[in-house]
C-alpha cells in the first residue's frame, strides 16, 4: 500500500472528526445515502460537499486513476468511485471522463481542481501548523541541485541581509516534491512546465551558451558551430538543450564520436569545463560565477547561444498569500532582473 500523502492524512483526519452540526444538507434525494440526512445550522449556511468527497476528487485527479487514488486514501476503488459519483451528482456536472486506462478531467473538472486544491492544501497546512512548533516565518524551499548550488546559494546572504526575520530551509533534488507532505513553500523546478494545478513563475532570461576555459580557445579559436564538430564536447545529460539538437539548429549533424565526458548534473559539467576538459553547452544563468571569475568564457555568444525556459518557481495558489513567499518572489524578481505576473 502506497504511503498516504500529508494532504490525504490531514483531510481524512478532519473528515473523521467533523461534528454533525457542521455538516450540510447537500441533496434532497433521499436515495442518496452519502449526502442525505445532513442538517444545516442556519438558513444562510453555504452548501458544501463532504471533505471525503473533495479528497477523493483531488487524489483521483492527481493520479488519473481511481485505483491509485483509493490506494493513497486507504479506501476501496468502489468507495472512491461512489464519492466521485455523489460529488458529480451534487454539482450537477461531469468532472471526469472515464475510459479503460483511467480518468481524465473535463474542463469543469480542471477548473474545480484548481480552486479546491488550494483550499485543501491551506486546510492541511493550517492543521499542521496548529499542531506544530514550526515557525510561521520559516521559508521552506526546494530546488533542483544545480540551480540551488550555483545560482541561489551565492545569493542567500543578500536575502538574509534584507529579510533577517525569515528563516530559510533549503533542500535540493531532481524530484518534484509534494508541497504538504514534504513541507515546501516554493519548489524551483527544472524542465518543461506541466503543473496545471499550481502557480508557475518561469525564469525568462536564461540562455544556453557554448562555454569553455580560455586556454581551449587560445589553442584553437571557435568562430562558428562547425568548428566544434571535432572538438572535445562535454554532455550535460539533464539539460533541455543537448548537443545533437544544438548542432541541428545550426544545420549540422553531430558526428558519432563519443563525448569526452558526460554528467547528470550541470554543476559537474561546468566544473569540468572550467578545468579545460572540453566545451560545455550550459545555462549562462548557472555559469554566472564561472563567467565572472574568468574561469569560463562564452564562445561567440551572440551567434551560438539559444534562449531556454528551463527553471520555474512552482507553488500552490494559496501560498501566494503567504507574506514570506511574496517577499521571496519579489526578491527573486530583483535578482533575475524581470518581474513575475501574479
Could you walk me through the main structural features you see in this protein, from its secondary elements to its overall organization?
It is a single chain. The two termini are 39 Å apart. Strands 7, 8, 9, 10, 11 and 12 form a 6-stranded mixed sheet that branches. The chain is 39% helix and 16% strand. With 342 residues, it is α/β, with parallel strands linked by helices. It has 3 domains: 6-130, Winged helix-like DNA-binding domain superfamily/Winged helix DNA-binding domain (Arc Repressor Mutant, subunit A), CATH 1.10.10; 138-200 and 310-336, Periplasmic binding protein-like II (D-Maltodextrin-Binding Protein, domain 2), CATH 3.40.190; 207-307, D-Maltodextrin-Binding Protein, domain 2. The chain has 13 helices and 13 strands.
Keywords:
16% strand, 39% helix, Arc Repressor Mutant, subunit A, 6-stranded mixed sheet, elongated, disordered N terminus, D-Maltodextrin-Binding Protein, domain 2, 3 domains, alpha/beta, 5-stranded mixed sheet, 342 residues, single chain
Q: Strand content of the residues, in percent?
A: 15-25%
**Nearest-angstrom radius of gyration?**
25 Å
Order of helices and strands: HHHHEEHEHHEEEEHEHEHEHEHEEH
What is the level-2 CATH architecture name of the largest domain? Answer: Orthogonal Bundle
The number of domains: 3
Number of helices, counting only DSSP H or I runs of 4 residues or more: 13
> What name does the CATH topology of the largest domain carry?
Arc Repressor Mutant, subunit A
> Which stretches are low in confidence, meaning pLDDT under 50 for 5 or more residues running?
1-6, 17-41
- Silhouette: elongated
Mean pLDDT across every amino acid position = 83
Query: Which CATH C-level class of the largest domain is it?
Result: Mainly Alpha
Q: Assign the structural class, choosing from mainly alpha, mainly beta, alpha/beta, alpha+beta, or little secondary structure.
A: alpha/beta
Distance between the termini: 39 Å
Biggest sheet details: 6 strands, mixed
Q: Quick one: how many beta strands?
A: 13
Instruction: Report the CATH superfamily of the largest domain.
Output: Winged helix-like DNA-binding domain superfamily/Winged helix DNA-binding domain
Q: Percent range for helical residues?
A: 25-40%
